[in-house]
């Protein structure tokens, strides 16, 4: 009698959520590799470019003018919003490169806005409004609603673990880093930021600045204040329209 065939090995079941996270991480790794390649090409091309003396003079004048204007803006006293609905601000860097004075750049860096089209959540206060006034030509800001907060964190949320940027898709990472504050999942992060809770600073420090998309026609390319027909400054609740186009 022929020997009986051995039963086929059972297939290993992998949950759908694990497969989705694995796919997201793979796509993220590919995107980061392409970005690094493009950055290397750009730096190489910039290193071959020789500036003319006129360009150095123009950039120096622009920086000195920016310093004078920054000091003038710093003397303005616009009242900071203190209502319960406007304790939270979302700040987006929309410009600034060679025309900025080093002191202006230092203020932008203190807000963690090192790149154009990067954004951060901050708490509205007198001190914060003074900083925003000084860097106003290079930023726009306003009062994000809960939907904008949630969309930004779920779509663009990134954290730094062991010096590596990691997409915020795992509640285990949240619990490990913020569990001591009773923040154990992504939804807790959304609530803490939207309500400007007592652990707001810890949560926003845990998040990397948001890397936003170029909004194309949503910005006019003007350094005028938003209320004067430009791009910069306080958009109040209309910041939500810009967030939706850049998210």
From TrEMBL:
Transmembrane intervals: none
Domain called Large ribosomal subunit protein uL30 N-terminal eukaryotes: residue spans: 14-75
Domain (Large ribosomal subunit protein uL30-like ferredoxin-like fold) ranges: 89-139
Molecular function as annotated in GO: RNA binding; structural constituent of ribosome
SUPFAM superfamilies: Ribosomal protein L30p/L7e
Keyword DNA repair: no
BP-aspect Gene Ontology terms: maturation of LSU-rRNA from tricistronic rRNA transcript (SSU-rRNA, 5.8S rRNA, LSU-rRNA)
Protein keywords: Ribonucleoprotein, Ribosomal protein
Protein name: 60S ribosomal protein L7-1
